[in-house]
Amino acid sequence: MTTLKMTIDQTNRISKINKEIYGHFAEHLGRCIYGGIYVGEDSPIPNTRGIRNDVVEALKAIKLPVLRWPGGCFADTYHWQDGIGPKENRKKIVNIHWGGVTEDNSFGTHEFLDFCEQVGCEAYVAVNVGSGSVKEAAEWLEYMTSANESPMTELRKKNGREKPWKVKYVGIGNENWGCGGEMNADYYSNVYKQFHCFVRGAEQQIACGPNSNDANWTDTLMKNVGPWQMQGLSLHHYTVPTNQWHHKGDSVNFDEKEYYNTLSHTWFMERILKDQEGVMQRYDNDHRIGLVVDEWGIWTDVIEGTNPGFLYQQNTMRDAILASINLNLFNQHSARVKMANIAQMVNVLQAVILTEGEKMIKTPTYHVFDMYKDHMEAELVYSHCENKELMPQPEHRHPGQQVDHLPAISQSVSVDGEGKMHITISNASLDEDFEIDCLIPRAEYKTVSAKILTGKYNALNTFDDPDAVAPKAYDGVTLDCDSLKMKLPACSVLAVELC
Ligand code: AHR
User: Fold this and answer.
1) Does pTM top 0.85 for this prediction?
2) pLDDT category, 452, cuts 50, 70, 90?
3) Is 416 exposed, middle or buried (0-12, 13-18, 19+ CB in 10 A)?
4) 295 belongs to the catalytic site
5) Which of 108, 131, 210, 386 has its CA 20 to 30 A from that of 179?
6) Is 90 exceeded by the pLDDT of residue 88?
């Protein structure tokens, strides 16, 4: 077994890992909201005011910190007043982006904020810039958050909610360079500032940021909009296995070559973070403006036979390794990355939960979030690990490959408020186990415990076999004073706690 040396410098505290890095995204798309989260009060599926109890419990268990809603592209078509008041009077609309299906607006503002309260997470609302108005957005925030007397707050009370809600984050539009209005960066900067002046009530305002690694968009926004006018700049980047949008690759039936190509594509996130941080640094040395990666994850072809507009895909060990790489990157870049939202929470893209009628399963990605949850609000500490390059040979690479490296090992380390150390580390190799020989100078930890998630690269959970991929207690980790030894099997994610 190859040994790789690792060092952790617990005295080198780099940045706080905002809990919001473990955030999620839920859009009115396919079966994310309807069926996935909301089934209605009359459903035989156990629910509280229409919201699935099993889903709420599963999300509470991973301490879901923040949820972004209602889109996505849907946000710039959404008129919030369609989704309040008695359900029978709510306007039915066509969901133009996602399958052209009828949206009956039975899940609206009250239901979303009720869901956040049931789960115990912060709300992140994206207002409609593309086809809405400043007035509409300003009134929505007033409706949700104001304690004063006004037509909007009276309307809220009439609809059954006396107290205002807390909405911590508001996003001003979504992908306004694309489905949110096809604007250029200068034009959007002006529109942003106009919304910024009037949309009050949230603690933080997030501006629409670049499509993937578009440095020009970021530069323009940073130049035109200052840190007092925005607290975050969003960024969207998806990992597409083949790098081709017309044939993205299957979510379950892929070979080892495609596995490695997918993971090498996901490492492009590191390049994006470094480049975007570089641009932001020029204007904001003090890290006042956060990079908010509010859509990320793997995007494959849909499961055969399902509506192509519903973006329903399965989730395997490949996705678990991919999630582990991205979450370790966000931790390592937490000086600038203040929030990240995996797309999407239930039944869409890299979902942590899949439902079928009354059945619900947790995907391998769910388990990675569970294993990483102790990093939330902890302090990132310096770590370095020797590595092995797994990049496929040129003849095995997909055309248009975005990065030219694929390290086997990805890791991040933090120390929490009680002084416990948490190490999350994954091995992307499919044929090589490693022993990680880790030195933690001056460590005084007494006990070690570990959990492992491992399986074949396309192992998955199904409704018939829901726990095929699940974390298990692991005894392949030993601690002797300042020396920690971790056996890391091929295709595995490991979470270690030192107390
Ligand atoms: O998550 C699916 C879609 O991807 C979102 O609606 C959009 O913002 C992005 O292009």
Assistant:
1) yes
2) very high
3) middle
4) yes
5) 108
6) yes
The residue-averaged pLDDT of 141-169 equals 98
- Distance from residue 72's CA to the centre of ligand 1 (Å): 5
Helices assigned H by DSSP within 267-332: 268-283, 317-332
Tokens of 19: 């809990």
Rounded Cα gap, residues 473 and 452, in angstroms: 6
Residue 74: predicted pLDDT: 98
Give the model's pLDDT for residue 299: 98
% of residues, the chain, pLDDT over 90:
96
| Nearest CA among 196, 259, 265 for reference residue 224 | 196
* Catalytic residue check, 379: no
174 lines ligand 1 (CB under 6 A): yes
Structure tokens at 129: 């810039």
Average pLDDT over residues 468-477: 98
- Residues 31 and 47: their CA atoms lie apart, in Å, by 16
Domains in the chain, CATH or no CATH each = 2-9+381-498 (2.60.40.1180), 18-377 (3.20.20.80)
**pLDDT in the model for residue 392:** 73
What pLDDT, on a 0 to 100 scale, did the predictor assign at position 289?
A: 98
Mutate to test the pocket of ligand 1, among 103, 182, 236 (most ligand atoms within 8 A of CB): 236
Residue 253 corresponds to which amino acid?
Answer: N
Alpha carbon distance 270, 276 (integer Å): 10
Tokens matching residue 488:
């890391």
Residue located via tokens 């933090």: 414
3-state secondary structure of 41: coil
Residue 388's CB: how many other CB atoms inside 10 A? 15
The answer to whether 173 touches 130, Cβ cutoff 8 Å, is yes
Is 175 near ligand 1, meaning CB less than 6 Å away?
yes
Higher pLDDT, 109 or 402: 109
Distance CA 459, CA 486 (A): 23
Alpha helices in 243-374 (DSSP H): 256-266, 268-283, 317-332, 364-372
Structure confidence by residue, pLDDT tens digits, 381-429 = 999 999 999 977 776 777 666 777 899 999 999 999 999 999 999 999 9
Q: To the nearest whole percent, how much of the chain has pLDDT over 70?
A: 99
**Ligand 1 atom 2: residue of nearest CA:** 72
Report residue 329: phi and psi, to 5°: -65, -45
Q: How far is CA 107 from CA 47, 122, 173, in A?
A: 14, 18, 20
